[in-house]
Amino acid sequence: MTAPATPGSFPPATPGSFPPATHRSFPPATHRSFPPATPCPFPLPPENRDLSPYTGWTRAHWEAAADGLLRATVPYASPGHGLIALPGARPSSSGTRSDGLEGFARTFLLAALRVAGSDGHDPGNHLERFAAGLASGTEKPTEARELTPDSPDSWPGIAAVRQAYVEAASLALGLRLTRPWLWDSLDDAVRARVVDWLLPALAPSPVDNNWWLFGLTVGGFLLDVDIENVRARVAVDRALARIEDWYRGDGWYTDGDNRAFEHYNAWALHFYPVLHAHLGGDDALLATHGPRLAAHLADYTRLFDTNGAPLPFGRSLTYRFAATAAPWLGALTGHTPLTPGATRRLASGTLRHFLDRGAVDRRGLLPLGWYGPYPPMLQSYSGPASPYWASKGFVGLLLPAGHPVWTAREEPLPAETRDAALPLGRTGLLVQSTASDGLVRLHNHGSNSTLAAPDPYYARFAYSTRTGPTALEAPADNHFALLVDGRPTTRGPAVPHGAGPGWAASTHTPRRADGTELPGVRVLSATVVHGRTELRAHLVTGAPPGTRVRLTGWATTPDGPTAQLHPVHGFDGPPADTPTGSTLVGPGTRTAVLEGTITAPEGSLFLALASLTAEASPAPIHTRAVVHAAADTLRVTWHDGTSTHVPFPHHPGAAGAGAQAPADGI
Asked: Cα(555)–Cα(575) distance, rounded to whole angstroms?
């Protein structure tokens, strides 16, 4: 066993901080400018630094951005405007016709929010072309997956293409929002065809996750227009009952019968029920789901950097500023912990963050990616128009111009007012943010992917607002692995194993490169944080002596934040500096790597200190903490004299107990 039987300190033996290639200091929280990386391709109004001292943006900027994004898609519409086939490197797995429907439905949602938020005023004449598209798209629905010259406008049927079930929700929500100006003006024959096309979406969801809420959204529209009321009510009630099975308290849902906790909580599992209740005037439903949204926002709004970046963790990241939908919705319904000025500061900061960094190309289009195009972060269901679910981020336009969210002076975000080191409910997620640089980090000890493993956007131990996970084919950042036949293991599903102020722990079973589990091997892991400092602890049980292990730190670009990694116990020596390719924030990343050796099958302990910071000239990480290990506890004494105690059984007699303990505690 590598840890002593009696309490012992593990001060660093040698300075092992990982020096970045260069250091870029991040402006302090009081900094007022967002220097653009590339010019926005459509015109924006002048800044107003009196009203918006942090971002300079007002409601007029949001309106201009919505109009600019909509105008840019017009050249890609089919002859009758039924489909919008945007250019892209590849189609989605659903085919080019579905991609064209996606382009229509998601930009229609943006137009609906723009017009409904202006009380029917439509300066861009957006609704006229979408009305034409509703007529042409439903005239001859087809089962053909690919676009053909003989049916350039026809929508795919919901029964024929599963993705159409998803797009039905955006169509129905857009119709609900614009009913007085669009739906009520359509010919009876067109309305009948649209209803016929939507009705299959009232059937049970073909995917047992947030997809249930697409049927709820279609049902909500049909109830509003008094069509198929019985079927519509069944679809709404069935969806609400299903997501109730997934509510875990503290504002958090799982996205299905699993442990998928990420941003789908905000822009799906809260978004659709709360907006449905608001639009329908359902006070009873809002009394249940509104407080849940507020509780979620208390956690979720901590995941935004002071530079505007949301945290890139989970799937469908190409939706970008859809991340602002839930904060806007909290302001719209009165269920939010944020002040009006802080809400606008968060949302405007996020939209501007992306527009200033090339997320909209020279044609005014949103490509598949984060800033610019970035294929490694995409899923097979993502097509050229998928990024336009960013339209959800414009739900703030439903708030009238005189609402305090638009008239109040901007106020600071949680990440720039004080440091945070907080577990997020029962998710196993631990948020760590530092007010000195506004940087936010998330440590994952309990959320798992709904997609095929290993998934870099779920399986890593840590994520931040200024780094991205390395690509699947590159060396993994923020990872702990055993080396089996010379190849690093992947992380099996993380099972929460306790959490407290400043720490979280989990267990997992490592998997070989081919996906098979290592029989009898368990890894008990903990992250303990204070300020910018992290202690990363890993106890390996059941592995043969002599097995090598590997720990990696943060992957940073040359102009990114400073990453440090230092061995404390169990590792051979200072870290190696390893190139790790591109991430969604940029090319040329490098990552620190530590290696060590299993010495006893009953348990070998590995400890390291880590840091990611945008502070200027940060002190070496080994000066920031001293770690003491007793038989069942880790105690970290921080540089400011405070300490954190974490239950962490690592004596030989308890070596196997960690993996068998209850999920709610060690």
From this structure: 13
